[in-house]
Amino acid sequence: MPRRTPRTTLDRLRTPRRLPKFLKTASICVLIAGLLSPVAAGTAEAAASNDYCGGQCSDILPPGENGNATLAQILLNQAFGTQPSHAEDQLGPYANLATGYSTLTDAKINNFFNDASFGVPSDQVASSEKPAGRSDVTIVRDKKSGVPHITGTTRYGTEFGAGYAAAEDRLWLMDVFRHVGRGQLTSFAGGAAANQGLEQEFWRNAPYTEADLQAQIDRAVAGAGDRGKQALDDVNAYLAGVNAYIDASDSGRYFPGEYVLTGHKDAITNAGTIEHFKVTDMVALASVIGALFGSGGGGEVNNAISLLAAQSKFGVEQGTAVWESFRERNDPEAVLTVHNGESFPYASKPDSPQGAALPDAGSVTQEPLVYDRTGSAAGASAARASKTAATTALTSAKRGMSNALVVSGKYTASGHPVAVFGPQTGYFAPQLLMLQEIQGPGISARGASFAGLGMYVELGRGQDYSWSATTSGQDIIDTYAVELCQDDHHYLYHGTCTAMDKIEQKNAWSPTVADGTAAGSYTMRVWRTKYGPVEYRATVGGKKVAYTTLRSSFQHEADSIIGFQMLNDPGYIKGPQDFQSAVQHINYTFNWFYADSQHTAYYNSGDNPVRASGVDAEFPVWAQTAYEWRNWDPATNTADYTPPSQHPNSIDQDYYISWNNKQAKDYTAAPWGEGPVHRGNLLEDRVKKLVAAGGVTRASLTKAMADAALADLRAEDVLPKLLAVLNSSTVTDPAAAAAVSKLSAWVSAGARRTETSAGSKTYADADAIRILDAWWPLLVKAEFEPGLGSDLYAAITANLPVDESPSAAHGPTGSHAGSSFQYGWWSYVDKDIRAVLGRPVQGPLAQKYCGGGSLSACRDALISTLKQAAGMTASQVYPGDDQCSAGDQWCADSIAQRALGGVKHGRISWQNRPTFQQVVEYTSHR
User: CA 404 → CA 343, 585, 655, 705, distances in Å?
Assistant: First the structure.
């Protein structure tokens, strides 16, 4: 049996109840006997290319490299909890950092990470293969983690090998996500409510036809010269490798077992088909990743609704001032990535706004996406999934996730830069990303790539440099009000009544072994205009309009391939300027970070449209020539974009931090909530202290990240001020006094959410954590609703949720997703409480809210809600879900690997850190 991670590390999940009753142990064993696949073995050594990291590059990506499982392996996992080889061997080391970081040294880093050096030592080779018998490429896998190291002598062979290895490790996941991108998941994988929500969330914003997908490829290739042609060749070679594996695994009957469980293949006769991948599938895949992590902005209709509510409550002038103070477009107290004072104005509030098309009060309705529901698609759970999907798709609060800590060599012990960085892509089984090393003509890199898009390493290292990204989320989405004419599906375009395009996707499903959801069907229908898909209907000044959303990367999902190609090319990347030049070719909204042995660098990517003079990007504008993006061509959705020099960028700043915070001074925040308290402060405070002391090492920077990963942002940055109000006079109530004592002790201990000891599944300061989790939503409401009124309070909470604790359900994977404290009212509470205490506030709220500005009244409100919170039981605060029993605090916070296939993994203790992560320090340079 494969080595299993000890129970002290993982909370093993066994879910045989998902299998039908007839799959008893005996029949499982019979199936296993005929379905176990052979494992290739060999002793060949992968030749290491030029590696300038000196053994000081490390990475980690839980749960494990192997994301494919045969039917036999799935049945073993479901029945007995056994794991396929390398399916979760990175989960234990990843989890253990939470309790092991305090004693971390450079020598111990690879107890928690993989050695990310190029190549595989001869005594560490687990297997070697020539995919499809090719002589121009070899795939070597290492013993420790099973990562594929692809070495090719031709460009075609190299990419063929990358595709073959990707299919070996992620074929089922790749298939799932090409169907998500095409809006066909339920027909492919089953009609579970979660599947319905997933396909609806992404197809709403990227409703492409096959012709649309092909046109994007044609444009991307044509617009990039020789590199574009090379990219298409690379894609075709990669897909040839993927399809070769499909054929080999089909004939050899070792394909992923999910194809049997979902009814696509027959376990006995092998009847059925696994469809080959084609180039347009890659665009569909890219559209999912881009929408999930790389598109900022939107939310203009909700902004308008909350502005109108504020003006209704306070009058136009004061209401606008109140709204702007909560919006925090450019808050002077916000933590910045480029912190040297340099200004990068973008999407600024115009002095004299033009073209605004705010809806008439109460007239807004959301455009339906789903029609003609039958069977299980008409149930309550399906309706809830649709509502959640729509909210997620339309909000400006994009769950970007990811963080970076980069320190210049001037402040390190070695004199070389040190970086700890990576993306938080959620926790899935198998993981969305996969590790690989690719060495071939014009390619030399190791790192992570999204499954199915692994022609190049997307986040990782080259020969003498590493790079990573965080989601930036600057505003590249605008909302237009198109005036209707003739009927609800015609609109005025430049004075001509024009028909909307109707784009439909019809899906139907039946129960399978994998998904027993009853039969059902529906049609997803999007009405598309030249200004993008219709998202809302309303009236403006009595005129009927449709609100559409136009994204600069819409119809350009394939364009970023050139930037990734450059990042993998050692002949192109020689230093920080080349790095910045490469990522300028990436049209999605990301913050990019770079480190080599001498330099660090940063660049904010994305196609930032140049808006018409006077347009306020916060609100819908009329779909008229005067308010369109400059030189916008609706046929190709191209326009003028801000030049690279106007994007936040920097080389060799003393340090960089990013946790989806504000990029630079005057670079307007697209989401709400980028004020004085942001999770970026958790990194800023720690790294700034390290830099001031000097002598930063890989271990000390990793410890700073790991410590921030356990911090409760509310407790570390806001709770001390709340306690100052409570303690402004003696707390005499016994219940309140006890709560204050527990909260104060927690703050003094570091305000972390951490186990008493490794594997205890019990938090230190558990009562204090429970009290704050219960108190926060109560105190926010008591502090702000009286002054705002219930309507405005509700409208602003629609723009920005009140809380995002670890146990809350939020983000693309719901609860148990790790990533926390990205969006919440902590900045509002912080500014307001400081104002009530008489402390200085830059960029204050328009008025004082807590207790109407009275310290004693504010204290009374806080005491009252604190007593209420302290009286709530753990079962009330943590009500339980499909993963946890009510009252289980540790489990409520815990991270679960959300199953996208048949293999299950255990929960791990909460950490707020990247899913894929690198720790790097280069010793030399070419």
Answer: 21, 21, 10, 9
Q: Are 593 and 602 in contact (CB under 8 A)?
A: yes
Check: CB of residue 430 under 8 Å from CB of residue 451.
Answer: yes
Residue 646 CA to residue 101 CA, distance in Å, equals 39
pLDDT at position 652 is 98
Cα–Cα distance for residue pair 905/897, rounded to 1 Å = 6
CA pair distance 13, 10, nearest whole angstrom: 9
Tokens of 753: 């959410």
Q: Which of 567, 379, 549 is nearest to 475 (CA)?
A: 549
Give the residue ranges of the chain where pLDDT is below 50. 1-47, 811-812
Residue 473, sorted as left (phi over 0), alpha (psi -120 to 50) or beta, turns out to be left
Q: Which residue has the tokens 């299980």?
A: 376
Maximum Cα–Cα distance for the chain, whole Å?
81
The answer to whether 533 and 548 are in contact (CB under 8 A) is yes
pLDDT at 390: 82
What letter would DSSP give residue 55? T
Q: What residues contact residue 531 under an 8 Å CB cut-off, 6+ apart?
A: 480, 482, 548, 550, 623, 634
- Distance set, CA 887 to CA 138, 350, 762, 806 (Å): 52, 50, 12, 15
Whose CA is closest to 551, among 601, 636, 501, 476?
476
Residues composing the chain = 926
Q: Is the previous residue joined to 840 through a cis bond, with omega within 30 degrees of 0?
A: no
Rounded to the nearest 10 degrees, what angle do helices 380-394 and 193-205 cross at?
Answer: 30
Task: Assess contact for 447 and 58: CB atoms under 8 A.
Answer: no
Number of H helices and number of E strands within the chain?
26, 30
Question: Encoding tokens for residue 654?
Answer: 């003393």
Spatial contact of 403 and 658, defined as CB atoms under 8 Å apart? yes
- The two tokens of residue 829 are 């509470």
Q: Where does residue 246 rank: exposed (0-12), middle (13-18), buried (19+ CB within 10 A)?
A: buried
pTM over 0.85: yes
Q: Strand pairing partners for 482?
A: 546
| Burial degree of 65 (CB within 10 A; 0-12, 13-18, 19+) | buried
